[in-house]
Amino acid sequence: MPDAIRIAVIDDHPMFREGALQIFAATDDIRVVAEGATAAEAVRVAEELRPDVMLLDLGLPGGGLEAVAIIAGTFPSVRAVMLTASDSEFDVAAALAVGARGYILKGSSGAEVVETVRAIFNGESYVTPSFALRLPVQMGMHCDAARKCASDLTGREEVVLSLVSLGMTNQEIANRLQLTERSVKHHMTTIMRKSKVRNRVEAMLMFRRGGRLARGSSSAKS
């Protein structure tokens, strides 16, 4: 199948991963070229094999969001798609913000997953319909300009910034990422230094407006 869509499946639940592999094995135009169970393996597969599409679980050891941020920023030809059980709209928005091309729930049918992979390969973006009307409009489907504006942010810092852009407090971010509030504050200090913004508000506006800093915004301490 020289023209088959090359995909990788990264999930830390063996039974689910095997089920996904069986679904794709039944197609004529999709070929699984790799599988894995951690964020580190996802990044390694992206670097070594450059699959067309990569399916990742949000809860991967090492961080699914962090893996997507690294892959989207370093290997843009690899289209990362979240295939996860989380139905949190914050998780959806955060995934799209760091570069995911799509977000599919694990309760989706095999046919829906296959069609989504095909659509993503053809340059489209996809979010499970139940989320489409609930996502904040300002997030958009991509944040490429914001990533270019702060291209030296780590994957973890991009995730923190995406959650800040959703209006989450440091404590809420700490709870979501299983960090201490002090660690989140440290990340914000580093983000502001790297992004050359003066405060949390400017960092949020930079992200929401695609990297264009809003001048004259009010000051706010991180």
Could you outline the blueprint of secondary structure elements for this entry?
Layout: E1 5-10, H1 14-25, E2 30-36, H2 39-49, E3 53-56, H3 64-74, E4 79-84, H4 89-97, E5 102-105, H5 110-121, E6 126-127, H6 129-132, H7 144-149, H8 155-165, H9 170-177, H10 181-195, H11 200-208
Parallel strand pairs: 1-2, 1-3, 3-4, 4-5, 5-6
Helix pairs in contact: 2-3, 3-8, 8-10, 8-11, 9-10
- Radius of gyration, whole Å: 17 Å
The largest beta-sheet arranges its strands as: 2-1-3-4-5-6
CATH topology of the largest domain: Rossmann fold
Q: CATH class of the largest domain, anyone?
A: Alpha Beta
Give the number of DSSP strands. 6
Question: Globular, elongated, flat, extended or rod-shaped: what is the shape?
Answer: elongated
Overall pLDDT confidence = 80
Please name the fourth-level CATH homologous superfamily of the largest domain.
Answer: Response regulator
Terminal CA distance reads 52 Å
In total, how many domains does the architecture comprise?
Answer: 2
Reported CATH architecture of the largest domain: 3-Layer(aba) Sandwich
